[in-house]
Design brief:
- The protein is an alpha/beta fold.
- The protein contains 30 helices and seven strands.
- The chain has a seven-stranded mixed β-sheet with strand order 3-2-1-4-5-7-6, with helices on both faces.
- Strand 2, helix 22 and strand 3 form a beta-alpha-beta unit.
- The longest helix has 20 residues.
Length: 610
Amino acid sequence: MNRKERRAAGKRRDESAGSAPAFGSAGVSVAGLAVEASRFYGMRRFNEAQEICRQILAREPGHVQSLNLVGLIAQASGDHRGAAKMFTKAIASDEVNAACHYNAGNSYQALGNRAKAAAHFTKALALGMDAKAVGFILQSPTVTAYVGRIAGKWPLPVTNAELFGADSVAPLARDLFLRSAMEATTLANMQLEVLLGYARAELLRLANNHDAEDDDIVGFACALARQCFINEYAYGQAEQESELAGALRDRLLHHLASGAAITPLLLAVVAAYFPLHALPQADALLRRDWPATVAGLLRVQLREPREETEDRSSIPTLTSIRNDVSVEVMRQYEENPYPRWTVNPLTAFAADRARGRTVATAEQQARLDILIAGCGTGSHAIQIAQVYPNARLLAVDISMTSLAYARRKTRELGLTNIEYAQADILELGTIDRTFDSIESVGVLHHLAEPFAGWRVLVSLLRPGGSMRIGLYSELARRVIVEARARIAARNYRATAADIRRCRQDIFREAEQWKPLIGAKDFYSMSGCRDLLFNVMEHRLTIPEIAAFLNEHGLSFGGFEPFDDPAVLEQFRRQFPGTADETNLDQWHRFEVDHPETFWDMYVFTATNAH
């Protein structure tokens, strides 16, 4: 159903809101019945919604939306056993439905079946719910209560006793969705970060006091350690907290050297402050027996980094790296590979493609040669490889650390159509290869001369080939320019300690820096460094882009679809009757009036007209 059809359906729903139609009529489609069932459910008229769902299921026993809705109705009445049965049927019909897995997880948690609950939550997150995880977590009454206590004294700190009371972190530790989300993805939210920072300090107190450990506390500590590893230890910490964490690490190292027993909580709390793979003799941890939650932590913090380190020597180098700025940029991304992604965003797409639910277009099935120029840690290349399974991809980046991460993730997914190599875009003209398609998103503006790099890429593009380019906007990034000036004035350096202090200062001045605090990149060390501390950043304008395209015979194909559909509606209103989405002069005038339009960057396609 496209946007126009959704609006029409919405109008029909509004017109019929006063009463229910005669649903028993054979003339009413299943789709129409499903719309009405959802409407009644939203009005909390559960009996009517359930009756409609029963009629649908009489026609289509595997109708996922109806099975899910009946499950939610049972869940609302407290019948979690019945709810779980409905969700299981829905998943049998559509095993990649994230919402059904999430709902099943909630019912299994209520039933006390924690293993099944965690498995369904993990599946939901892998199928795309990672993008919505923060919103669901903040709906928890337990989390809301803690957040409220912190807000009541903000920006002054609360004590752990004031925040957690006698229960310590036990109520948080019982939240299996929170734990699953901490393991799966960066939780990019100021309120959650502050709360989890307090929780980490409380776990540090428990570990230092040798308090008795229970499975939930250990599981929560392991999940928080994985979250801290994903965000590269971006959380702020007071001086005394840092000292206590250092002392706990030293105790771990002493036990490791002496062969003494190491409790799971001790290990997990140390891992919440320090990456395990960086500790001396850390491999000895792999020779001990651990519970499953700790084994998962060791896989992420020790086994996988070791695999990446060992793989570096196998990565080919295609070009020299001679440019001074390129060398500085390489150093940055060696220290902080970016982005540190965890979830494959095309999991559901790939599953549907494998089961024949979706069919690749002729273009997607073509044997194309594709260049990903500046692939970073591989997310971009991996997505393209899944959409174009017959294509041959060359994915290059300046950072060996990033490439090793990309190769590991590619092996995990079983993809075989990506060749990775180290290269400087400025030197790619020496490789004697050409491509049907070239993608370089978020890369050229970090070169010493963005247009020089772009010219090199144009020289590698075959006649009729296409480019997908992403560049920073001068107008949209004014807040970034202002933040970088503030950083320079306060003498913050691109070190972990200074980036942490800078982030805490921005939190304390949250009203002034809302765009930064709303940016996902702000919530990891590599993301924040890329966003605010990059060694080289150019910002461009639409007229500059238009001039380059014209000079090199490239035809502008349009900007990528906007997350907010209102952008295009505003654009068309501004140019009534003449709006042309491929007219860069119109887009420039629109951006001047709406400078936040390209906050992320300009991302557009262009075709080689030669």
